[in-house]
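G.,

No rush on this.
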Amino acid sequence: MKQKLPITDLAVIKQMLPHREPMLFVDSLISYSESSIVSQLTISASNIFVQNNQFQEAGLLENMAQTVALHTGYKAMFSEATPRIGYIGAIKKATFERLPSVGDDITTEAIITYNALDMTRVDVAVFLEKKRIARATMTTILKPETNEA
């Protein structure tokens, strides 16, 4: 049975992602479709990518990648599969117009433009108060599944 959206319970989010603190950069799932996903994150002062009260570019990129991973994890959750570990394979055309500050709620939207086998290419944008502050085209690759007996 699918979870009603949005999902704001961090325990449920953790069921869909292999990431854990201090490397967890998604705290809500807002919407999901076969070809897109929207997540949110509240920037906390304890975040390892916060410097001088601002969430840095590396954190925004990791938030983008984890949003893609959340798409895979949400789909896996309902087939009773374990969330798979993924890697950023390539980042193309990343731009950053503004860095969010501690306390800001960012919304990240990923649109899948290509998906084959364990590789996914997405266009990802991060928004703050409905204004785009960062975007990238990213390719993610899932770690191969192992058949352990």
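When you get to it, here's the other one too:
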Amino acid sequence: MIREILRAVGIGCILAAGILYFTIDSKVPSDNDTQQLQANVEKLQSELAKTKELLATAQTTSSVKENVPKTDAEKALSKEDDAAKSNPSSDAIIKTILTIENGSNSTVVSATLEELGIIENAAIFESYLEEYNLTGKIQIGEHQVDSSMNFKTIAKEITTVKK
């Protein structure tokens, strides 16, 4: 009895191995397949390079404002800022209009606010925006800010749509 069972199991294993041998396609990649894969990889790498170039261009143009003539209002604000910075009094409140251009990200805005003297540390404000998921909600336009505002008030101002 056991002998017959073992014989049946053995025959079953041999049959299963034979069926698998003839039905499984053990195709070795050909040179044509390899060339096609390499072409796809090269195409993806060129698309990645183009995307990186476009991203770098977009970040550069959004964060750099070169040779743009200042309006009279901006000149007046600049003079007020210079006067406030030269004043040693820490009680002076710096008021300015922050212009956020299309493509500006939260890092650029934070750095600009620090340069204007509205906030003391751009990295801390940037982490505040990240913590409250506000980095992608910054709105383009002109926003009135001053150094007496806390992070919450500044964040509310720069995430409010301006017409």
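The domain at 72-158 is CATH 3.30.1490.480 (Dna Ligase; domain 1). The chain is about 60% helix and 5% strand.

Enjoy the weekend,
O.
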